[in-house]
Write a structure and sequence with these properties.
single chain, 6-stranded antiparallel sheet, disordered N terminus, 5-stranded antiparallel sheet, alpha+beta
């Protein structure tokens, strides 16, 4: 059992009477203010023609993307990932700016804010297969909750049809032939609701970070494109300025086996432990493991047992890095395409363990937050996007409100 010096917590995440740990003075250091989980881009999510050709992607092309930061600072640096690329990723030039009117998903920028990004003093960088690169620090003032535009140009393109992306951006990116990194706008650009290559932004800050590991319910299926109303976004709206909220989720992701993106046990080092300034982890994943396992009683008992063992491994590995772990119960999926056989029994087994095992530093009862009291196997009608599995923005708000803010103090 890990020796804990933080406040005692009940199984529902409520603080118990205990002696508070002494808080070290806040210090400024690099902390991630935004992340996206890198994964291999599926064929249907590749940049549309002519930006994807046989054996090369984004040759002589500009890619403009917007992201929303969750911690402010006056200096920042960018992370570009080639984790799943099939060849060297050659980045020719990068600029950053504030988007027009501060909005997400727009192609225009505020020209007075435009700055060039360098890598080891150079404007270009070649990122080897499987690697990432961190830019030089850049003086650039960011406020918590502000949107940032990142524009990259690839002269040669990436010589492979395996590239690194985050398909579930719920944010519009813009592609245009030629080098337009300095352009105020990109008229005629092709739109794509995906992120490519960019995997993180850091700022110098004294604010701590919480990483959220999850699947499509955290990646935001059912949320508003360019609306930033996934539940981690709405959690940020509650802790604005006090905590950086880092969304490391992907639709279709699983804890035990690869799905869309590597399984959680395999990606924990990159998506949690390698992130800067992290103090807490929220773990909200497992429904796809249950939903893709066979519906028989034996298979569902096995997947429930395997999930519980995996959660324990994740807690142990996070605790070894002094990261506290908050476990979230799995939300209902009654009458969805997952509602067959003994899957509901497996969900209940997993949730019972999350609530009662005392292995987590706190429990977030997301199941209780969005289930229908009249039919607890189902989502609240107002929270259900229509497939009886994913949530509306109002449903995601209920999840965000189910996180006690005192956990971050």
């Amino acid at each position: 059992m890990r020796r804990r010096s933080f406040l005692g917590l009940t199984a529902t995440g409520v603080l118990t009477p205990a002696v508070a740990r002494a808080q070290a003075p806040a210090r400024t250091r690099w902390v991630h203010t935004w992340t996206s989980m890198p994964q291999l881009c599926e064929p249907g999510n590749m940049p549309p023609p002519p930006f994807t050709q046989d054996g090369v992607v984004l040759a002589d092309a500009t890619l403009r993307q917007t992201i929303r930061v969750t911690a402010g600072g006056r200096r920042m640096r960018l992370w570009f990932s080639n984790a799943f690329g099939g060849a060297v990723l050659p980045i020719t030039a990068v600029t950053v700016a504030l988007p027009a009117d501060g909005r997400a998903g727009v192609s225009a920028i505020q020209p007075a804010t435009r700055r060039r990004v360098t890598f080891n003093g150079r404007s270009s960088a070649d990122i080897p297969k499987g690697a990432l690169i961190v830019s030089d620090p850049l003086d650039f003032a960011l406020k918590p909750g502000s949107n940032l535009t990142v524009t990259a140009y690839l002269a040669r393109g990436q010589a492979s049809n395996d590239i690194t992306s985050h398909p579930g951006s719920r944010t519009t990116s813009h592609l245009l032939a030629g080098n337009h990194t300095e352009a105020v706008d990109l008229p005629g650009a092709t739109r794509a609701d995906h992120w490519y290559f960019l995997s993180g932004i850091e700022v110098l800050s004294a604010v701590p970070a919480v990483v959220v590991i999850g699947d499509s319910l955290t990646d935001g299926r059912g949320s508003t494109t360019n609306g930033n109303d996934r539940w981690p976004d709405q959690l940020f709206d509650r802790v604005r300025g006090e905590v950086a909220v880092l969304n490391q989720a992907a639709g279709g992701n699983r804890v035990l086996n690869d799905g869309l993106g590597p399984n959680v046990l395999a990606r924990l080092d990159r998506d949690l432990l390698a992130q800067s300034g992290v103090r807490w982890l929220i773990l909200f994943e497992g429904v796809n493991d249950i939903g893709t396992a066979a519906t028989t009683e034996a298979a569902q008992k096995q997947v429930a047992d395997d999930l519980i063992r995996a959660y324990q491994q994740i807690v142990e590995r996070a605790h070894a890095h002094d990261i506290e772990v908050f476990g979230a119960t799995l939300t209902p999926f009654g009458t969805s395409f997952y509602d067959e056989g003994f899957r509901e029994e497996a969900r209940q087994t997993v949730n019972r363990w999350i609530r009662t095992s005392k292995r987590f530093d706190a429990v977030l009862d997301f199941d209780a937050a969005v289930r229908d009291p009249a039919s607890p196997r189902r989502l609240l009608p107002a929270a259900d996007v229509g497939d009886h599995l994913h949530l509306t923005p109002a449903g995601y708000r209920l999840l965000a409100q189910a996180v006690p803010l005192r956990l971050f103090r």
